[in-house]
Amino acid sequence: MAGAARNAFTDGWENGWMNGWDPSFAPKFATILFSFLTFLLIWVVFNARPNTKRLEKSAAQQKVSFRIHKAELATRLISTVHAAFVGQGVLRVLYFDGQRLRAENNGFTETSDTAALYFCVSVAFFIGDFLICCVQFEDYGYGFLLHAICGLGTYFYVVMSDSAHYWACLGLTWEISTVFLKL
User: Positive or negative CA dihedral for 137, 140, 142, 147?
Assistant: First the structure.
């Protein structure tokens, strides 16, 4: 069609990008955003507690920076809330939906809206975890940063691809141990 007018919405790179956009991502994005803001609010409220001499003395005795020592309560609380909420959720999904999710003996093709909710919450948690690890890199180091990157990448892929829900549920059951580590 020589001489046809170019339409910016149907031609070029925009066409491939817009046709590949899945409108079902909107509620997932809203869940990720709401969860991230909830985790951020918890962190800000508990990290903003006033300084005390006892807190400074405890940080000096443990030979850690005061900043990480003060943020430790907020970080522990967020990881415990995430582990308890997501842990019970994926266990319920595996119990009630596990056989269906593992259809055809591979566990990659079937999806669950309930499991997707818990994956979105985990994406929000790992975004926050990644940010904390970047800001406090000298305190946390490469190990925690790698954990945050791997968790974020894995569950973001699961949310975006709508696949491997069975295996992602199994992977998130490891987060249950966080509750016992933080006691």
Answer: negative
Residue type present at position 91 = L
For residue 90, give the nearest of 178, 177, 39, 166 by alpha carbon.
166
Please tell me the pTM assigned to this model.
Answer: 0.79
Q: How many CB atoms lie within 10 A of CB 173?
A: 13
In this structure, the number of other CB atoms found within 10 A of the CB of residue 103 comes to 12
Residue 111 to residue 161: CA distance in whole angstroms: 10
Specify the pLDDT at position 30. 92
- Consecutive 10-residue averages of pLDDT for the chain (183 residues): 48 46 78 95 83 67 64 84 94 90 78 92 96 87 94 94 91 89 67
DSSP one-letter code for 49: S
> Cα-flanking dihedrals φ and ψ of residue 5, to 5°?
-70, 140
SS3 82: helix
Q: Which string of b and e fits 29-62 if b means at least 16 CB within 10 Å?
A: eebbeebbebbeebbeebeeeeeeeeeeeebeee
Q: Which of 132, 174, 155, 151 is nearest to 31 (CA)?
A: 155
Q: Is 106 helix (H, G, I), strand (E, B) or coil?
A: coil
Residue 140 is predicted with a pLDDT of 82
Rounded distance, CA 99 to CA 113, Å? 15
